[in-house]
User: Fold Sodium:alanine symporter family protein from Candidatus Weimeria bifida.
Amino acid sequence: MLNSIVSSIDSFVWGPVMLVLLVGTGVFLTFRTGFRSWRNLGYALHSVLSKEARTKNRGTGDVSPFSALMTALAATIGTGNIVGVATAMFSGGPGALVWMWISACFGLTTKFSECMLSIKYREVNEQGEMSGGPMYTMKNGFKNKTAGRILGFLFALFAVIASFGIGNLSQANSISGSLKASFHVPLYVTGIIMTIFTLLIVVGGIKSISKISTVVVPSMAVFYVVAGLIVIIVNWRNVPAGLYQIFVMAFNPKAVGGGIIGTITVSVMNAMRYGVARGCFSNEAGLGSAAITASAATTDDCVRQGYINMTGTFFDTIIVCSITGIAIASSGVLGTVGADGKPLQGVDITIAAFESALGPVGKYLVSIGIILFAFSTILGWEYHGEKAFEYLVKNNRPAIMAYRIIFSLIVYVGCTQALDLVWNISDIMNALMAVPNLICLLVMSKEIKQEVDRFQPILEKEKKLRKKAKA
Assistant:
């Protein structure tokens, strides 16, 4: 009964209205800023990979620009990249991947905008740490201060709740499930170890979390991408057919066997809904969560760091999610039936895709990927939730330390309890966070354009200097 009610709420909040608000905001901002997020993507990627991004030489902040991005990516590259993509392709067909790409393209501008504004309106707390995020943008940036305070409070409240759902329970559950299935590790053992590790790291705050993220995130991403590419290369003969299904079924499912793949029947609306929903779950563009971490970056210009942080959407969806999606499509496992006579779903689809090319090793590689991705997500989301909680309790340090301890203990609950409702509840919390954040972006769209236009001559000058340096 409860599962049915939550499912109905999830379907409503991720219905046409939310899809239009999420993608529509990205489309509107992309056009309003003159497609600068797309045109300056090369500049942004170059900035991320530069040596300067790893230093704290330019401006003020808590961590380097690269560390801020990696901490944000720690929260975004998670089970959504492995389980979420498979779930979207099962529920919405292969075409869901195209809608993930489309939402990510416009999500670049959304991510840029929310991060840029959060840096512009961030504050320094009593401990000398940067505190920022959409709640501070609303509080400090809105002309109507009452509306700003109300929306800021709602965003922070939803972010705290979401930190226990999307950022904790569902991730911990994925880790313990993978370890039990692949390595026969008891749930309670995983729970104890994960709780201890989480507590040891999060007690140190953003600097401790960023140190771990800077090492773990690039390593785990490269590990998973290489493994996925091997699967695609082994199944290379099926890649053209897989890509054909992906693109055709995004817009015309009936063109491919009546829209049926094995046991799956899909529609364009389903492909769109699950593609956008899981894409947002994965890269978090529009939620405002990554903007909280971006605010910790050392930078001399909010637009510069906004461009750096927007690459998180590119790496997450265009790179990592694509690897999972193409591996699944080229392996031919979508719609197949398992030993129990039921269609393969979720992580089982991804495992079957990897096993099609790598044999039993594929199962272990996917399990390791889930463990690394999910644990980094827990760390990144702890920071998101903590900063939102800090906003609500007005920097009450004992309360914040209590949050860190409770958050770590919740990891044990996630590891040891069967949580069938977690995915739907996480989706609902995402939607609730997104609403005030997207309203904020639309209200402040004129300011976003002005900041982009202001920085463009600076950007062009830097590009010319780089060309001279190479010559």
Remarks:
- Residues 167 and 378 are 5 Å apart (CA to CA).
- The mean pLDDT is 87.
